[in-house]
């Protein structure tokens, strides 16, 4: 098969790789119908995270089940499936608690499983899926191709934005600030609107992202940052910070921004992968009674909650994709996102 | 009046101070019926926190309203009242949000109000209470003296333990670990039991405190600390940490203990005043999807929730008091707590 391999900073190639096959009774092999590039893929691309050896990359895909192992009962050959960005067994205590990202049988596509075996990347033609019953979600009917972008967001960004909103305690009537205008931040705006937030302030300096934020339900946009950004938020909210602030970047600066925009007694939901080592200042949290929650999003259980709204068209999260390229042009997809010419790029292995 | 003044480490004196009087229309003057010594009072007593100038001390009291200003409508002369450890106006946006400890008109007894005026300490005969309507809670009837210790816990420790439990998301059926066996930690055990926790593990190395923890609802006691303590907790809970861990100390070590005892996706409630600068490691929180919440407890609204259970005898939080002394012996009260001869000392200004 053809699949994407990262060799080092700026070095993304599509190569011939062995066709995946069922290796264990719980495996499925899925033919990838659509994949995409994630903001976190840019970290090794930019050299922020080191690539010690070439490896497959990409962790978001939807596709069709091609083959199943003898132990698989939850999906059948021919099913159209959504794959969360991690595999999980669905049966351990952490899965039972809804934290599939802490599953004892865990792995991220393109990385390694907890048993040490290498996993295919999602930016390719096929993926072997261990623990298929715990991992894959079959769409009830074969979806129309117009739904593909929206369904693909369930693999990561929509679930991650939803995790930010849930962790940040967004509810009916909440005031919300979203820090970060990438695909996850925009998805957090959408998720907040879906949960009934009354006021949603998107912090963004880019016109196209501001427009999409408003389309997703943002009531206000704040372009300022730092102290000016906090002052602008407080002016919009009658002199105090927001009930809920969603941190969707992961830098020290964005966390500081988020902490400053949270009202006393408010909640900060974080899903930005911590870059470097931002730490949370206890005395500040203590004096203001802040609640801070979040992490790597357990999107698997969220798919059950969000899929009906995607299928019904109640939400259109796939609008975060503003460029579609064939798999063979994946290097262009990375550079377009790196240079901010695209918010998020959809990849079509069949094109 | 007679009132306690701290002059420096180990130097606690009862002195003659001016009788408080109504200074503003919203003031009340309360005659103190019972006061007590808090674990946090030991910080300046031990020199951990500097005492730059002598000042009145003590922040927990119950008493009888002696005089009210012309603007006070919520309490009447003769009412038996509970005073939270902070005053608050009850009308600002933060009070409306339930975070009375962030009130724009805030002050802690023995310290200064936000307008800069000095506040009487609670370890004395009388206290002037600004914003009496927002601050004081009148008990419906004159309580029997046997209820005094229980009512006094509503001023701080019971509300603070309850805040730990609420912040730590304790609910029906939860597994809970309480780090800290002082009066607040013991109150957190009681609050967790009241909220329906199924399993409550008290971390304590002192026999008398272990006994009281069990009486308050602890199902298990773990005497080990550090990695051994975490291992003991996990052994009790089937291999994982607790749903809720309540940090009731405030040191770097106790926070590390609490973080280590929280299961993936679990909640950590903290009410221990941060000593030094423990900071929260973001990558750890992120990878385990932890929720961390807490701070200086807004006990004023909690009194409404907890008072009925105190009056009915459903809970007996005043058992944390294991020594009662007359006000004139307040120095003995401090040394008894400093030397761990007492968990918490009740002071009787009328004795």
UniProtKB/TrEMBL annotation, chains A, B:
Co-factor requirement: Zn(2+)
Keywords, ordered alphabetically: Metal-binding, Oxidoreductase, Zinc
Gene3D superfamilies attached to this UniProt entry: Medium-chain alcohol dehydrogenases, catalytic domain, NAD(P)-binding Rossmann-like Domain
InterPro entries: ADH-like_C, ADH-like_N, ADH_Zn_CS, GroES-like_sf, NAD(P)-bd_dom_sf
Ranges where the Alcohol dehydrogenase-like C-terminal domain occurs: 183-297
GO molecular function: oxidoreductase activity; zinc ion binding
Entry-linked CDD domains: FDH_like_ADH3
Domain of life: Bacteria
Family membership: Belongs to the zinc-containing alcohol dehydrogenase family.
Name of the protein in its database record: Zinc-dependent alcohol dehydrogenase family protein
Native source organism of the sequence: Speluncibacter jeojiensis
């Amino acid at each position: 098969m053809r699949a994407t391999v990262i060799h080092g900073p700026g070095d993304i190639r599509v190569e011939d790789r062995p066709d995946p096959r069922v290796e264990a009774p719980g495996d499925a092999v899925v033919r990838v119908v659509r994949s995409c590039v994630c903001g976190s893929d840019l970290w090794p691309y930019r050299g922020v995270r080191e690539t010690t050896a070439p490896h497959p990359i990409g962790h978001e895909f939807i596709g069709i089940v091609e083959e199943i192992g003898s132990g698989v009962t939850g999906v059948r050959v021919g099913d159209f499936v959504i794959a969360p960005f991690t595999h999980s067994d669905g049966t351990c205590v952490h899965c039972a608690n809804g934290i599939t990202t802490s599953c004892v049988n865990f792995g991220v596509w393109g990385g390694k499983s907890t048993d040490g075996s290498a996993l295919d990347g999602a930016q390719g033609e096929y993926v072997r899926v261990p623990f298929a019953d715990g991992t894959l979600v079959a769409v009830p009917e074969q979806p129309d191709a117009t739904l593909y972008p929206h369904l693909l967001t369930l693999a990561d960004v929509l679930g991650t934005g939803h995790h930010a909103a849930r962790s940040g305690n967004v509810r009916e009537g909440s005031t919300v600030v979203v820090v970060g205008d990438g695909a996850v931040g925009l998805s957090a705006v959408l998720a907040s609107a879906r949960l009934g937030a009354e006021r949603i302030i998107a912090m963004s300096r880019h016109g196209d992202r501001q427009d999409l934020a408003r389309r997703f339900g943002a009531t206000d946009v704040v372009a300022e940052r730092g102290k000016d950004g906090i002052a602008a938020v407080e002016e919009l909210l009658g002199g105090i910070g927001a009930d809920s602030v969603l941190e969707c970047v992961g830098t020290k600066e964005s966390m500081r921004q988020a902490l400053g925009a949270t009202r006393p007694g408010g909640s900060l939901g974080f899903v930005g992968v911590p870059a470097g080592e931002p730490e949370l200042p206890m005395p500040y949290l203590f004096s203001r009674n802040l609640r801070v929650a979040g992490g790597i999003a357990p999107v698997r259980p969220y798919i059950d909650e969000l899929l009906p709204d995607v299928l019904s068209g109640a939400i259109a999260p796939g609008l975060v994709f503003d460029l579609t390229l064939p798999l063979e042009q994946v290097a262009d997809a990375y550079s377009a996102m790196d240079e901010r010419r695209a918010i998020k790029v959809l990849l079509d292995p069949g094109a």
